[in-house]
Design brief:
With about 300 residues, the chain is α/β, with parallel strands linked by helices. The protein is about 35% helix and about 15% strand. The N and C termini lie far apart (about 70 Å). The chain binds thiamine diphosphate. Thiamine diphosphate binds next to helix 4.
């Protein structure tokens, strides 16, 4: 009985994240699954809607910004990581989740992706990888596989795609994970681990895009995905092993692929500061009247 009561409490908490806004994604879009897993992870970690902040990029993934009842900010294309970094600096105890498409992450905002990892800002960053520019109707992105017929490249994409996990693993990361929008159990648990992690938790999520990416379907993914739980002796503390596994062409490894618990997050790296204080308060405490006078 108490378990059922507990369950219904969790369901109520889950529903408290709903906004009632109409969904505009295509039917079968992976974004439904990702939003579901994010909400589940927040509820299971015990967060109430007002205790967390989510930042959204431009694109189909960004259209979730009014579908979840919490502190949200919908920014410019490719700029979601700087937004989230600012939030993470100003609210050091607030969990921050940032998310963006593969276009935003691997083209418009690739610089922010690299520096977000390097700085190890405290956030979960979810890459919605549908392997195309979805909202602008299906052009090839830097993640589109060679040979895929897209709008703008009807004879097939011809550039080698950027492998997001490979890139991340070459930036001295602290947390690199990969999952699939249809695997609610795995994705929810990875987001929970990301929320518990101190630093930049990168989660790449493969998502099907039934409207524009006809060849990278749910069944194609289901054949290609391999949970590292099923790889005997996999050592997620070994970066060489992680680099090797994300380069495999015959399968796509999923799970928490790499974790470095020793790497300090951005706040803890600054040993000269009182890391427990809010940087906004730090600025407020400074007397800047002399500086202002010098401009008068
Ligand atoms: C700086 C900038 N460049 C281009 C655009 C136009 N634009 C809007 S949405 C979009 C596609 C987004 O693709 P992606 O980031 O992969 O997200 P998805 O829609 O696939 O989720 C583009 C190119 C823009 N709004 N701003």
């Amino acid at each position: 009985m108490s378990q059922i009561q507990n369950l219904s409490e969790k369901v109520k908490e889950f529903l408290s994240y709903e906004t009632g806004q109409k969904h505009t994604w295509c039917s079968g879009c992976g974004n439904y699954g990702i939003l579901n897993s994010i909400t589940r992870a927040l509820v299971l970690e015990g967060y109430k809607p007002h205790q967390v902040a989510l930042t959204f990029d431009i694109g189909c993934s960004g259209n979730a910004s009014d579908k979840i009842m919490t502190n949200t900010f919908h920014g410019l294309h490719g700029r979601v990581i700087p937004l989230a970094s600012g939030m993470a600096l100003a609210n050091q105890n607030m969990p921050i989740i940032a998310m963006a498409g593969d276009g935003a992450t691997l083209s418009e905002g690739i610089n922010h992706f690299i520096h977000g990892i390097r700085n190890n800002y405290n956030m979960v960053f979810i890459l919605h990888n549908n392997e195309n520019y979805g909202l602008t109707t299906g052009q090839a992105s830097a993640a589109t596989r060679v040979g895929r017929n897209m709008n703008g490249t009807p004879n097939g994409a011809f550039l080698e795609p950027i492998n997001a996990c490979q890139l991340a693993l070459n930036c001295n990361p602290s947390f690199v994970a990969r999952s699939f929008s249809g695997d609610t159990e795995q994705l929810t648990s990875l987001i929970q681990k990301g929320l518990q992690h101190k630093g930049f938790a990168f989660i790449e999520v493969f998502q099907s895009c039934p409207t524009y990416n006809k060849q990278t379907t749910d069944s194609w993914y289901n054949e290609m995905l391999k949970d590292i739980k099923n790889i005997e002796g996999y050592d997620r503390a070994n970066i060489s092993t992680a680099r090797e596994i994300v380069e495999k062409k015959d399968f796509l490894a999923t799970g928490l692929l790499y974790e470095n618990k020793e790497k300090l997050d951005y706040n803890d790296m600054q040993t000269y500061r009182n890391v427990n204080s809010n940087p906004v308060d730090e600025v407020k405490q400074k007397d800047i009247s002399e500086i202002i006078k010098s401009f008068q």
